[in-house]
Structures are given as structure tokens and as C-alpha cells.
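S1.2 Input.
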Amino acid sequence: MPIDPYARAQAAQDLARRRRARRAAVRPRPPAARSGPDPAGGSPSQRRGHAAETLAARHLAGCGLRILARNLRCKAGEIDLVARHGPTLVFVEVRQRSGRRHGGAAASVNRDKQARLSLAAAFFLPRIVRVHFQGRPPPCRFDVVALDGGRIEWIRAAFGT
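S1.3 Output.
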């Protein structure tokens, strides 16, 4: 029995679509291979954001957290920092504002942003658990590091999932 040409073309398109999706999937890199965005490149806003993330990472490292990854991106969104605080996996959102007008940096992490962070964390969680926690899912939390006019505020467990 001959194969229907339409079915063959459809199968070829499906295969090509799956291959493109597989290639486009964003996977976190091991920490040593990831140096973050080039601070000299990008717009002034991007350079300020990178500087804020670097400042937040140094602050958190000084408080005993181990930074595992930076700037993990997927279709759902971006996670600025991923850290380990003892047995806990911490997803960190870094927000910077020049002042407290309109509520400040911490207030800018609204419900929509929280939902995007949760989706992005769910996307990266299996890989992070496999690489850094020997396959055993750790307790997780979402923290916010708010930089308001040069002041750093670390908000632990800023929101739940």
C-alpha cells in the first residue's frame, strides 16, 4: 500500500518543527561557562541592569549564598540569579530604581512578574536539580534584591508559588 504524499509531507513538517523546537530550547549552562552579558555592550539601561545584578550577586555571596547561575532565559521569562542557601535553592529577582517614587524597586515585582518568574523557574528546575542537587529536589524560594537609590534590601521568600 503506497504512503499518502500529504501524510508524508505532514510528517516531514512535524519532524522539522520538533527539531527547531529542540534547537531553540534554552538550557542553563554550568556556572564556570557562564560569564553573564558583556558589561561594555548593550544600552545604558542594560549596562545599569548588569551592574545591579553584579552588585546583588556580590551582596548575596557575602551573606553566605553560593551563586549557581546568572541570567537564565526562556520563553516564560528570565531569572536574574540562581543561588544555593544551605539546602535551599533560591531564585533571585534583582530590581533597581533610582528612588522610592511609585513604591520603589521591591513594589515593581507585581503578580504578573511573579507568575513569569514561577514559570521560568519551573522550566529550569529539573536541570538545576540534576546538576547541583544530585537529582533530589530541594526546598525552593523566591527572593528579591531591591536597589533603591544605592541602598540594598534583600527580601527573603518575597513571594510564594
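S1.4 Remarks. Residues 31-35 have pLDDT under 50 and may be disordered.
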